[in-house]
Amino acid sequence: MEDYTTAADILAKLRQKKGSVKSLCLAPKVQNKKKVYALVCQTLKCHSILSDALTRVDVLAHEPSLNNSRDLALVLAHDLLFARRGILCGGWVKPVMMRHRTALRAALVAIAREKGIEIAQGTGHAKVAAAVMAYVEGDQPSVPLPRYVRVNTLKTSVDVVIKQFDSLAQAHALASAGSALEKGHFYQDPHLPSLLVFPPSTDFHLEPMYTHGEIILQDKASSFPAHILSPPEGAHCIDGCAAPGNKTSHLSAILNNSGHITAYDLDSRRLETLKTMTKKAGLTHILLDPSCSGSGIVARLDHLVDTELVAEAEPRPKQGHGKGKSKGAAATEESEEDRLQALAKFQIECVLHAMKFPNVQSITYSTCSIHPQENEHVVAAILAAQPSFTLAPRDRVLPTWTHRGDKGQGLSDEDADKVVRAGPEDGTNGFFVALFERRADASAGAAGVQGAKKRKVDGGETEDTASGEVVAKKKKQKRVHKKLAIKK
To answer: Which residues are the active-site ones (predicted)?
Structure first.
């Protein structure tokens, strides 16, 4: 019973924007993390169908003992309709749902037929559930990405790790870069030498090299910012909102442990693994990875909560009526656009603020988003507002990487070629990186734009800017990721 109530509580918190699927499911108080995570994910995938079935049968109206908890009814209905072993709990809740099993199964058949899923007369429930699940899975993004392993060169070397993998009982044979990966094979990444590439299903959590910190599981694209920034050895680095710390440890490896890194985060729970201090430093390099929509993360499920909430708030249309987009769908699109614009304003503000540090020479800006509003549009707005900085030439920004910025999205073709994009077609999550450099003719103290002026953002919206910092109405913001490399 506890797993179901925990999963229901997580669904409620997702609606309230109190965390992500992973952060809530992996919280310390969650006892059976693996089962709860699977239950929440599967319930989200089937949310619209489960919600429709519960509405048709009107379970909550007939069962006051559920305390009007639609989320609890959703997770129970998922296992009742789709789990091979059904609802796995004792007590009063299982009999409550079992009373509606026949009606819910009939509702599932009706929903399937309305969606065009072929269900023959007399088909057993197991086959009906399998057909509906196949329909649901086919509607979800499914791109099996390789498993990336970054060698922690502070503790070992790439050669040593390769030899160690080769010597394992279940041998991992080194293959040529770019070859089709088979189970037991891996290759060294052609762009990032400290990265090894394994088949998608490879599990390293019990591997001693992983538990000892000699290898780090990190997506290839998220390894780009530190690699592109490349602060010099001996630099003093500040990592703001650094949790969980993969980019921090990557910076440390690039520095060859010769400098100093201070990492901090606004979330006290995530801060437990990090140390914080320092108030002043002479900044020379900054790595900024601000809050973004996360739209580039493959198999991300949090967005389903937003979609279903809007749809759930709208009355279900009568069969055969209504064409085009529903009010719920239109509201979702409008809400998403507003969210992107708010994030873009915040991202611009972060970078312009970083540019005010008098000794800063280089700044990387990165997002795990695929939206141009958070990528090319943001870079274009920053360049327009801060003439003391320009984009670094392509030969300094992964020159052999062919996936560059989108053209026609606010940047000139030349500038679009200087930024980096990544996506599932490249075998990574969606990602974007730009490297800003101070112009050689710009004085160190001229970080801000002198005087207040107006500028246009994203093709028309006007904001006031003063001293290089955006002055705009602040909306609710997620946590910010900043990394500052500071010269001693």
So the answer is: 368
